[in-house]
Amino acid sequence: AEAIRATLAEAFPDAVELDVEDRTGTGDHFQVTVASPSFDGLSLIDQHRRVNAALAAPLGDGSIHELRIKTKGT
Predict the structure, then answer these.
(1) Strands 17-22 and 29-35
(2) Is the separation of the CB atoms in 16 and 8 below 8 Å?
(3) Cβ neighbourhood burial of 61 (10 Å; 0-12, 13-18, 19+)
Protein backbone atom coordinates (compact mmCIF):
# COMPACT_ATOMS: atom_id res chain seq x y z
CA ALA A 1 0.00 0.00 0.00
CA GLU A 2 2.85 2.41 0.79
CA ALA A 3 4.45 1.86 -2.62
CA ILE A 4 1.12 2.61 -4.29
CA ARG A 5 0.65 5.69 -2.13
CA ALA A 6 4.13 6.92 -3.07
CA THR A 7 3.49 6.34 -6.77
CA LEU A 8 0.21 8.25 -6.61
CA ALA A 9 1.78 11.08 -4.57
CA GLU A 10 4.42 11.45 -7.28
CA ALA A 11 1.83 11.36 -10.07
CA PHE A 12 -0.52 13.78 -8.29
CA PRO A 13 1.70 16.12 -6.23
CA ASP A 14 -1.17 18.61 -5.87
CA ALA A 15 -3.57 16.03 -4.37
CA VAL A 16 -5.54 17.36 -1.43
CA GLU A 17 -6.69 13.86 -0.51
CA LEU A 18 -4.83 10.62 -1.13
CA ASP A 19 -5.82 7.35 0.48
CA VAL A 20 -4.84 3.77 -0.28
CA GLU A 21 -6.67 0.94 1.44
CA ASP A 22 -5.66 -2.72 1.28
CA ARG A 23 -9.18 -4.11 1.09
CA THR A 24 -8.42 -7.76 1.86
CA GLY A 25 -5.14 -7.68 3.75
CA THR A 26 -3.47 -9.73 1.01
CA GLY A 27 -1.58 -6.81 -0.54
CA ASP A 28 -3.11 -7.06 -4.00
CA HIS A 29 -6.70 -5.72 -3.69
CA PHE A 30 -6.79 -1.96 -3.21
CA GLN A 31 -9.15 0.96 -3.06
CA VAL A 32 -7.57 4.31 -3.84
CA THR A 33 -9.08 7.73 -3.32
CA VAL A 34 -7.52 10.75 -5.01
CA ALA A 35 -8.83 14.32 -4.91
CA SER A 36 -6.77 16.70 -7.00
CA PRO A 37 -7.24 20.03 -8.73
CA SER A 38 -5.68 18.40 -11.80
CA PHE A 39 -8.98 16.51 -12.17
CA ASP A 40 -11.01 19.71 -12.42
CA GLY A 41 -12.90 19.75 -15.72
CA LEU A 42 -12.14 16.09 -16.51
CA SER A 43 -14.82 13.44 -16.83
CA LEU A 44 -14.83 10.67 -14.24
CA ILE A 45 -13.53 8.20 -16.81
CA ASP A 46 -10.62 10.49 -17.69
CA GLN A 47 -9.82 10.91 -13.99
CA HIS A 48 -9.75 7.11 -13.58
CA ARG A 49 -7.63 6.74 -16.71
CA ARG A 50 -5.02 9.05 -15.18
CA VAL A 51 -4.93 6.93 -12.01
CA ASN A 52 -4.67 3.73 -14.06
CA ALA A 53 -1.84 5.26 -16.09
CA ALA A 54 0.03 6.22 -12.92
CA LEU A 55 -0.30 2.65 -11.64
CA ALA A 56 0.41 0.95 -14.98
CA ALA A 57 3.55 -0.86 -13.74
CA PRO A 58 2.02 -2.59 -10.67
CA LEU A 59 -1.16 -3.31 -12.63
CA GLY A 60 0.88 -4.79 -15.46
CA ASP A 61 3.11 -7.00 -13.33
CA GLY A 62 0.23 -8.34 -11.23
CA SER A 63 1.20 -6.59 -7.98
CA ILE A 64 -2.29 -5.11 -8.06
CA HIS A 65 -4.88 -7.77 -8.78
CA GLU A 66 -7.95 -5.59 -8.18
CA LEU A 67 -8.19 -1.80 -8.05
CA ARG A 68 -11.18 0.29 -7.04
CA ILE A 69 -10.82 3.99 -7.78
CA LYS A 70 -12.56 7.03 -6.34
CA THR A 71 -11.56 10.42 -7.73
CA LYS A 72 -12.76 13.99 -7.60
CA GLY A 73 -11.60 17.47 -8.41
CA THR A 74 -11.35 20.13 -5.77
Answers:
(1) antiparallel
(2) no
(3) exposed
